[in-house]
Design a protein that fits this description.
Elements (H helix, E strand, L loop, with lengths): L12 E5 L8 H19 L16 E7 L5 E10 L6 E9 L8 H19 L5 E9 L9 H5 L4 E2 L4 E3 L2 E11 L3
Parallel strand pairs: 4-5
Antiparallel strand pairs: 1-2, 2-3, 3-4, 5-8, 6-8, 7-8
């Protein structure tokens, strides 16, 4: 099979941050994020619908990847800040890109958008050294190799053992992003 570089040229797109909870336009954009998540996690991967929308959705920061000029939603990611006795961190969650668009590497674009936001948010909060981001990566599944190798590309390292989340093996991973420079 020939490596056709033209097939890797992504379609026109944008990544937007869904406005905060008090903003009038949030609901419609958040619903688009949730619909993309349902298409991937529930319809494609078979996770239960009842666990897809959770208590973090109303307060999390969400990013929406959409095509231009149609504004068709094709991907999303979210983050929220977690305060713990061991220190605060940002939780990356619900990263999805519709199957037919995955070969454009949009997932990486979403992760980098979240990283930039987390660094800025941490700096605005007075943090000066590094920001920690944690995710629960899907491990290998019968229909995919999992996402651990994907997250490693962005500086994430495994922490602890595999664990069950919603009936599938997951791996806690963390990245420490420098705020220097």
């Amino acid at each position: 099979m020939a490596d056709d570089a033209a097939t890797r040229v992504p379609p026109a797109h944008e990544i937007i941050i869904v406005p905060p909870p008090e903003h009038q336009g949030r609901h419609a954009l958040l619903q688009q994020c949730i619909q993309v998540r349902i298409a991937v996690f529930v319809t494609e991967q078979g996770f239960p619908l009842e666990v897809e929308v959770d208590e973090h959705d109303p307060i999390a920061t969400h990013w929406l990847l959409r095509l231009l000029p149609s504004l068709e939603p094709i991907g999303t990611i979210r983050a929220h800040k977690v305060a713990s006795a061991a220190g605060s961190y940002y939780k990356l969650a619900r990263l999805v890109v519709l199957k037919e668009y995955r070969h454009y590497k949009f997932g990486g674009n979403l992760v980098l958008a979240l990283h930039n936001w987390a660094k800025n948010h941490a700096r605005e909060s007075g943090v000066t050294d590094f920001v920690k981001i944690v995710c629960h990566s899907q491990a290998a599944r019968k229909d995919s190799g999992g996402a651990i190798a994907f997250y490693r590309k962005f500086g994430y390292e495994e922490e602890g053992d595999l664990f069950d989340e919603d009936g599938e093996p997951h791996q806690k991973m963390a990245a420490r992003l420098s705020l220097a420079g």
